[in-house]
């Protein structure tokens, strides 16, 4: 009776074995770097929104409108959105690769994941850069109070 051969844990089927680019290595590195950057972005976001000024009581439509009127905060929130979405999508992709046993299931789940990623990033980016609390030509009774000052 022959004993089945168990491949070495270090032996992978990646492109690196064939002399190509090791995408999993870069994905792993991205997760570490983006995680550190996200910690800075998220704690900065929380500090400004909850600790500066009147704290959580001051967060309303006018607060967001005032914050997004400055390009610095638009870029800050955009970086936070993009990094969090890429970081999370990469993590879920890894989970799908680990637990989806059939190739068809893996392909469908990843396709759904990527569609959700694209929709969320595109919509979030559009909201951040096209947000206008006081659109021209809107009825006065529908505009927030900040538009009249």
TrEMBL record:
Q: How does it sit in the membrane?
A: Multi-pass membrane protein
Question: One GO CC term of this entry?
Answer: plasma membrane
Q: Which Pfam families match?
A: Sdh_cyt
List the pathway annotation: Carbohydrate metabolism; tricarboxylic acid cycle
Record flagged with keyword Electron transport: yes
Q: What is this protein called?
A: Succinate dehydrogenase hydrophobic membrane anchor subunit
Q: Which cofactor does this sequence's record say it needs? A: heme
Which molecular function GO terms apply here? electron transfer activity; heme binding; metal ion binding
Record's function text? Membrane-anchoring subunit of succinate dehydrogenase (SDH).
Q: Which controlled-vocabulary keywords does the entry list?
A: Cell inner membrane, Cell membrane, Electron transport, Heme, Iron, Membrane, Metal-binding, Transmembrane, Transmembrane helix, Transport, Tricarboxylic acid cycle
Biological process GO terms, please? cytochrome complex assembly; tricarboxylic acid cycle
Q: Where in the cell is it found?
A: Cell inner membrane
Transmembrane residue ranges: 25-52, 72-90, 111-131
The answer on whether this UniProt entry bears the keyword Cell inner membrane reads yes
